[in-house]
Amino acid sequence: MRSGPAARPARAPLAVALCVTLLMLPPGLCAGERRRLACSTCRGIVDRFNQGLADTAKKNFGGGNTAWEEKTLSKYESSEIRLVEIIEKLCDSSNFECNNMVEEYEEHIEKWWFKLKKKYPDLFKWFCIETIEVCCPAGTYGPDCLACHGGSERPCHGNGHCDGDGTRGGDGTCSCNKEYTGDFCLDCSNGYYSTLRNETHSVCTACHAACKTCTGSSNKDCQDCKEGWIKNEEAACVDIDECAASPCKDHQYCLNTDGSFSCKACDASCIGCTGEGSDKCKICASGYTKEDERCTDIDECNLPEKVCMKENQDCVNTSGSYKCVCSEGFEEKDGACLQMQVKYLPVTDDE
Ligand SMILES: [Ca+2]
């Protein structure tokens, strides 16, 4: 079951909003949208009514089963009190359309409650479709509830959505699911092929990833190859190895993928590379040297020749380089490492 008044027709919510708010628009333009909205409002009301029935049933059938209680309850069951309780909760106070509809047709709801609900237990059908005529039976559309394209039994042959289905709006045309196309959603879209087709049913199945269009499931059944694929000697669509043409930049390596390729950055230790990682460098970047087929960081601080020459200076090795920093207790001043001036902070009471 659909929940609450939010259950609007999926199509054109913006158009609905525009038509509801911009009343200066030509009325003809919005009539269809207004009719869709009216049905969705009515459906929301019936949903809330049924919710109200369930809520009041729970509330009042909790106790024992003495004769007195049964009599009182059965009286409550069809009482005006219960109806009023339910009607009060049919619309959120901010829902103008809903409150309007309930106010306009409250007498009908009362008549159904007191006289007709035994004979017509389906409130949606009685109220929304047959009495105030804002909805249509499923599979039909428009002011006169005509059958959707493909018939009211299985609109759009079960492969799409009928415009205005179940409302007094729309034009009954089909919006097909992505696998299907055509006025009746019987034909297969590009990238799909037919696995079943008879008078009433059509089933389309996805082609192989290599095909743009196809007649079967394998890459040999392609009519046209998708971009990034090419026909081989056996007339099968196979991946193009774009990397063979070296399409990437100097600091990148090429990664071939099915139907495509990508350029990825080389490791920081490389100048040029053939793949991911420091073992795929063409040449090692400065600060790195080849060790066990890998470009490995040079520890400049451990070289026989000292690299940090100044007095009171330490060497710190970094990836691909090194830094010279002043030793602990020394600070840099005018390019030299000088003893730090220790400042004594005034001691406060808090500490
Ligand atoms: Ca490729």
UniProtKB/TrEMBL annotation:
InterPro entries hit by this protein: DUF3456, EGF, EGF-like_Ca-bd_dom, EGF-type_Asp/Asn_hydroxyl_site, EGF_Ca-bd_CS, Furin_repeat, Growth_fac_rcpt_cys_sf, LE_dom
All residue ranges annotated as the EGF-like domain in the record: 144-186, 297-336
Listed SMART domains: EGF (SM00181), EGF_CA (SM00179), FU (SM00261)
UniProt KW Signal keyword: yes
Main localization of the protein described in the UniProt heading: endoplasmic reticulum
Domain of life the protein comes from: Eukaryota
GO cellular component: endoplasmic reticulum
UniProt keyword list: Calcium, Disulfide bond, EGF-like domain, Endoplasmic reticulum, Repeat, Signal
Name this protein carries in UniProt: Cysteine-rich with EGF-like domain protein 2-A-like protein
Species of origin: Amazona aestiva
